Fold this sequence. Notes:
Chain A is mainly α and 284 residues long. In chain A, 76% of the residues lie in helices and 0% in strands.
Amino acid sequence: MTSTIHDLGYRRYDGERLSTRSAWNALFVQGMRTLFGFGRPARAKALPVFVLVFSSLPAVISVFIASETGLPVRHSAYFAGVSILYVLFAAAQTPELFSRDQANRVLPLVFSRDLSRWQYASARLLSVILSLFVMMIVPQLILWLGGIGMAEDTVATFQDRWPVIGPILAVSTLGGVMLGTIASAISFMTPRRHLATAAIVGLFIVLGAATTALGSTSVVEAKTSQLFNPIMVLDLANRLLFDEPSRLAARAAANPLSVYIGMIAVYSALSLAVVWWRSQKVDA
Amino acid sequence: MSIPAGITGVVGANGAGKSTFLRILLGLLEPSAGTAAVLGHDVVRDRRLIRRLVGYMPEHDCLPPDTSAAEFVMHLGRLSGLPPVAARERAAEVLRHVGLFEERYRPMGTYSTGMQQRVKLAQALVHDPRLLVLDEPTNGLDPAGRDEMLALVRRTGSEFGISVLVSSHLLGELERTCTSIVAIERGTLRHQIAVDALTSEIPQLAVEIDGDADGVVGVLLREGWEISRDRTGFVLTLPSGERETAARAADAVRDACVTFGAGLLRLERGRTRLDALFADHAPSSAGNGNTVPASASAVTATPVRAT
């Protein structure tokens, strides 16, 4: 590395310069790649692949053993069965963006460019939300398309079942937004990835346990206590949205759908406020 | 105070506030008092405009260890608003400029400190800024690495027309690199000095000899030269700054050494040294040194302070 070799190097740049919007897009795309492990070592791909495969497995199996009576697994019950995998994905991957950026101390490089703190945070947040949305919608689509494809009269079945795409989009969006903002809010608070992961998993476990504990006392009615468990709120919203006849749904969902969707909005808004607050405060 | 275009050193002890000053200029910190402008733009009001024109190399580590330099610098080029293809080309170009070739495809966790500092410089250059802000670029480098980094800073500043603001706690380093220097003491911008004016030759010869110093000095005094002894040798003050006078004095010293069989260890024109100058500046001179027209300035600042 002698100085003569450097002489080949520098040229002025007088080409096109794009808007802040393009910088935001670049950050968002890089976030998606990081979350799914693209362009990163194989071990970074392990968890996204694991979650995608195992959360889709019930749907795949269900499609292949489907009988004339229909699919053995219902859309409405799907989330409850695999929700732990989504929590795992959110807990493991969200800190890869929010905590890692702090640990590697790249924020001063980002903030000293023409990107506001909120633009940084929103690009990161949106990539987390979209990645969870993808994780959640894939098994639902397999179930939906598989059910149509394996039916004897495909055309008739499609005509009968195409409106299900509405609730599929709705539950994936609600789940992505709520889990994504909660996980982002927590992992933005610390540069330590493992701490953030533990805190996210811990939060859902604690809230789940608290709900169960509250429900078993007579202090609070189950219909109230279940609202303190975001995962259960999401599960019950799923069951009501798909409008599939189910005794379980009728018994467990003690509130109307609007209450569950309202709670999802509350959880998301609170977490969003934390993300905004932290974006203004975080060291750069 | 106004800092002219060119390479300007920011010197101060550890903790004096160099990084804070630079971060205020970038809008990363709010000044708690005072105002500052970079390239004519106010650091609070126009910070986004400033950021488009400035490249920043922080003092601390800022490289994700599992990412390659090529990918990292390209990504930051995109964040600076370069189109994808241009970002890729610029990344390769600036990495070559700082002396990274095939290594740029390796994860940065495997890099030496010297290579990491180069990548940090490259990411500050990727969008071709008009002003480079370098916070302690020689931190952690060995002497050879320091020289290479300083040469790179000098070349970038002088050959490519990019103004540079470079901080260091080592005055000697800045003396060799910069065209002007500002000092920061305990959070206050103290004084600004153009390096040329201060490290210029003064009418003195500094002499060190090995042998009969008293004899040599005696001969020179008899010849009428004005001499003052110091710790390691003596200083011969010339009656005028002309070259011939200095040559005559040098001949006289050489002849005297030959006469007494003494070894001549050092014989050079005296130069003002910056550290001596800063030592001379009493704190009462704070804030003066406004020697350069503001129109040519890269940075202007009234005393800024951050909590």
